[in-house]
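Field: COMPLEX_INPUT
Field: COMPONENT_COUNT = two
Field: RESIDUE_TOTAL = 996
Field: MODE = joint
Values follow.
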Amino acid sequence: MRTLMELVLHLALVLALAPLPGGVIRKIKAFVQKRQGPSLFQEYRDLRKLFRKDMVISDRASWVFFAAPFVVFGSSVAAAALVPLLPWAGGAEFPGDVFLVISLLALGRFFLALGGMDPGSTFGGMGSSREMTISALLEPAFLVFTLALGLQAGAPSFGVILRHAATLGTAVWHPSFLLLLFSLILVTLGETARIPVDDPSTHLELTMVHEAMVLEYSGPFLALMEYGAAVKQLLFLTVLAQVFLPFGNAALAGMGIGGVVLGLPLAAAKVLVMAAVAGVAEVFTVKLRIFSVPNLAAMAFIAAFLGFLNLMVFGG
Amino acid sequence: MSMSHGDLWFQWMWIFLATAPLGALLLGQWPRASTLWASAFGALGSLAGIGASLIVLGGSGGGLRWTIDTALPFLTADICLDALAAFFLLLLSVVNLAVSIYIQGYAAHYAGRRPLGVLHFLTGTFVMAMAGVFVAHSYTLFFLLWEAMSLLSFFLVVFEPEERGTPQAGMFYLVMTHLGSAFLLVGLLGLMALSGGQGMTPLATPLTGPLRWGFFALFLVGFATKGGVAPLHVWLPYAHPAAPSSVSALMSGVMIKTAVYGMVRFFFDLLGPVGLGEGAVLMGLGGLSALTGVAYAYTDRNIKRMLAYSSIENMGIITLFLGTGAVAIATGHPGAGALGLGAALLHTLNHALFKGMLFLGAGSVHQATHTKHMDDLGGLMKTMPRTGALMLLGGLALASIVPMNGFIGEWLGLQSLAILVMRGGAALGIPALLGAATVCLAGALAAGAVVKFLGVAFLGTPRTRPAAEAQEVPPSMWGAQAFLGGLCLLGGLFPGPFLALVRRGLAPALTTPWPSPLAGGVAFLWAPMRGELSSAWPLGAIFLGAAAVVVLTWGLWKTIRHPEIRRYGTWDCGYGTLSPRMQYSARGFANPLVIVFRALFRPTRELSVVPGPSPYHPRGVRYTTRTERLFESRLYLPVMDRASRLSRLARGFIQTGSIHLYLVYIFVTLLALLLYARIA
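Field: COMPLEX_OUTPUT
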């Protein structure tokens, strides 16, 4: 029962927090461009607006188009349930759950891509084709990343990995971890449709991936799709933040309920720091040609693999 | 003689399985009656087979043993249904049950065109031969039935010889399968000589050194050819699509699994657990096969050929897991070994279920639209909703995505590899990590292949008239698919019972008592469940949680707000001329991958323009793209060329047509034999 309570609480937090990093990234970009930019909470307003709208749906679409938003959202949330915001406070966790997270993300992507193809437009097919190629190339890098951390933590499970990271302290600046950090940043940029892999603010058919797939969605369906994407983004940012910014977690872990109360703002702050890093990275890079993205994926894989080798041969 | 329940079921299985083809052949004059007969008795035989194998798998005894003496030496029919054989017999029976139901509707596809009685006869005897391969307990019987299986499936591949490419596919298959049989025959004769008998029992003294490697290589080539493991897979993408779809389901679902059966039986049971080196070879070939298969599945445009390539991928994954098991056992990680072998067997069962189902669905699409080419289809989800929904389920399983069974086997295998990564040190950990990355990449690419297939053939709008006019197939056809699809979903949500079957099935494959993967110890912790048949197992909980989220969202949505839904045309940039041909084609979908891996696919394109009145108004444009099949063009064709040139050269010396020369040959042979008899 306690686990269930924690799980519900965790999911509520994830849902509440998910749209925030997007706002931070926008704000950072606006700041660098000397604009005031939209409010930090603009993503929440967008979601509220979309949920209140009516929908226009293609007359070519089948039931798959209607099912996709729910599956995309549901699978993101289910995956997020396995990646704890506060690693020491428990939640859903079992050995080997990293493979399940990868598969749940694949489920969401599968339906996202099918939803893109269902209305029979060229845009959707283009987005789906690109998304499936890019994600297939990025997935092994993410797997190697999790196994490398699992090797050190003792089990391929996000809970175990994040708890182990909390004990590392300054050891996270070990070269292996820097390689793994680099790899995960690349994977995160790819999986969350950010520059240099995809540009969420463009509507040019030559460059878009994610936007092309959701082009035919409107109103609440679009809101669900975007919300699901935000939850997935939060998942990756959580892993980034809790593995590579583990400071304070070890102290908080021993403090019981106080650790939870103090830990939540800290975890949120770390996630926002990582979002800010992504925002800054986005300012200083350009969108890559679609056929340069495989090189990025190869770099992510090699960095993760080298990090793994380093951990394997020299120890953490 | 008192008979156990198992014996009785087993006996009835053979009676029904034999009745089905014979009766169907005799009733060949009346196609409907013939089909009904084959379908009914095939289903009864399958049910009896399911019963017999479940009794053996559920019992604690050593299985069933029949010995039927004949007057001929070497032809004593020694039959043994032990747990491993029962596991594979179960797999065959379940797929055959679905095929027997399916054929009722599918036979209409051939009515009046081809002799249905012959189709049912060949299918029925093919099923009997496969059942025989699993239960044969003497080397001679095993080989005879293996050959029967190969030949009968050859006749089924060329069942429609007037179809383009079918005769070539058949010949290719025949040659390749006999190449494998030749290796197998040498291996079997060698084992007979070593053990000094017919019985397929583990060797008294396990082989070591080069002798074990020799036998390993012989059996590996024999089984890899039948199973379509790269680089011996090249026949499979021709043969499986050419056969009628009910037969493709049996071939891809079950026949290639005889190779898995053979590998488990010979490498882990008869020869004793193979060593580290052999395991590494299996892992390497498995990884190669998985990536090759999935790469071509991603790019292929023919539904059945795409499924055939995906079978190569899945056989690769199974082989990789078998290799992982062997490596883990040899290096003293019994828990990981059990998981690896268990994953291989579970994935074998799962693949039989979902691939059988997908091939049946491909047959339904073919029957409804008369085409196997994705680029001629589109929008079938609306015209064939049941088949479409079932294909979506099967596609999820094929891409090893939750909540389908395809995920569970890969999950177990990945966990076995993860144990090796964590406990095996650098020498084991690095290859295991690469193995895991291979499985992951193959799974991700398979997802892309499935999205391409479903997106092009089932979603969007129809590209041709037949696709637009397609009608849902009769209930027997989608019902058979739904039966297998239901098992796939059950196997994904509640894998407990399926894992229990695997555990029982593995028992005879191990000469030493085996730490059960799910019974306790370290391995227990890694397994995806905390107790057999337990409902409190995490994946079910997580997935039901996710389903709850979906339902909750939907419910909230319905109660809080009723968004007005307006149906309107797809966005066409304001031109108003969005034609079905503007949708992404299968080739277009795969193009980014083809370009990324151009070293593998070697794409070439050809643009020819029929000139018109001005360069800006051509009369016609023809654009073709081709990709190369690297294994065939770089490995098989050169070897075949050399071989045929050499043969032609040699013919001038060896076979000159002179009777004197032939007499010399006979004389020399006789001398050699006499000398051999003298020395030996």
